[in-house]
Structures are given as structure tokens and as C-alpha cells.
Design a protein that fits this description.
Length: 193
């Protein structure tokens, strides 16, 4: 009988699996139930695409400094729409190559694989048209949303300004809150005289 797994189970007894059971190191170490996880610096849980990007402190500071207004976002969206319309005008219905696949052609003659000498491979090109309509629709919706947000912010700002005007004391009224002690004494003397 060979070596057993060196680990203790929850019940306190030793694991009865063979050493390295269901692992890449059969005969040594622990079984796959009690192995100590992935090796250091593995890429099993590595993120890809937009999630893989780690931002440095300098990039984070730069992003915080770039916080713009809705007007600047609106200008960027309009520029993107302009560029998409230019690309659509340039390419129109011209398809773009999406993939080129090559395949060797093999013939079977009496159980032996023989390659065709006249055509050693077949090349297949897959073309796809760029979906400009989706991008244009998306950008128009974004522009409409930003304009709506801009108008609502302007309306709220007008309401805030109106409320401030209502709460500001009119000249001659409620100036007592803003007067110094000496000015208050003079005002009282004027009222009694």
C-alpha cells in the first residue's frame, strides 16, 4: 500500500486517499481535497478586458482632475457622433474582414492520408459590416439624455436662485441680525426718540 494523504479531516482522523490523489503530483503530498490551493502567481482568477486594468495613483489623480461638466460630456458625445457619421460616409456598405481561417485539405486514399498537391490549403475569409446604426442610435440617445440632464440642472439652479432671493432680507427689514452691538444701540435710541 502506498503513501496516504498527510492531512487531517474535520473529524480528526487522517485522510485515507492516496498521496497526490487527483492532482498533478501523484504519489507525493496531499490529495486534491486537502491540497493547499493554487500555486503562487497563477493566473486562474485573472480578470480580462476593462476589469484587468489596475489604475496607478497618478492615473486616479488625473481622472479626478478631469471631472468635467455635463456640457463637456455633451461636446464629447457630439464629436463621437460626428466621427461615426464620417466613418459611415467613408465606408458606406464596404464590409470589413472579421476573420481569416486557413485549413489544410487532406484526402484519404486506402487508409493513408495524402495531401492534395494542387491546393495545399483552403483560405476562408469572413467579412462583416460595421453596425453604424447601433452606434449612431446609442450616441443620439446619450446626447438626448445629457441635454435633458443639463436642462434639469439649469431649472434647479434657477429655483435655488429664486429661493435665495426670497430669503434675503429686504433693505430696512431684518437687518438686526447683521448689525453690530453699537449699531443696535443707535437704532434703539432712534426708535425711542
Amino acid at each position: 500500500m502506498g503513501l496516504k494523504c498527510e492531512a487531517k479531516k474535520k473529524s480528526g482522523g487522517l485522510c485515507q486517499n492516496p498521496a497526490g490523489h487527483s492532482t498533478d503530483h501523484v504519489g507525493t503530498g496531499r490529495c486534491h481535497f486537502h491540497d493547499r490551493g493554487a500555486k503562487p502567481k497563477n493566473k486562474n482568477a485573472q480578470k480580462h478586458g476593462a476589469y484587468a486594468r489596475n489604475f496607478s495613483d497618478a492615473e486616479m489623480q488625473e481622472a479626478l482632475a478631469m471631472q468635467g461638466s455635463i456640457d463637456s460630456e455633451l461636446a464629447i458625445a457630439r464629436l463621437q457622433l460626428f466621427h461615426i457619421l464620417q466613418l459611415q460616409k467613408q465606408y458606406q456598405d464596404t464590409p470589413v474582414i472579421q476573420e481569416i481561417s486557413e485549413r489544410t485539405i487532406v484526402q484519404v486514399e486506402q487508409g493513408v492520408y495524402v495531401e492534395n498537391q494542387s491546393q495545399p490549403f483552403e483560405r476562408k475569409r469572413i467579412y462583416q459590416r460595421r453596425d453604424f446604426s447601433y452606434e449612431i442610435t446609442r450616441l443620439i440617445a446619450l446626447i438626448a439624455k445629457l441635454e435633458s440632464t443639463s436642462l434639469s440642472l439649469q431649472q434647479k439652479q434657477l429655483e435655488i436662485d429664486e429661493l435665495k432671493k426670497r430669503q434675503e432680507p429686504k433693505q430696512g427689514q431684518d437687518d438686526l441680525d447683521h448689525m453690530t452691538d453699537k449699531e443696535l444701540d443707535e437704532k434703539i435710541m432712534e426708535l425711542f426718540s
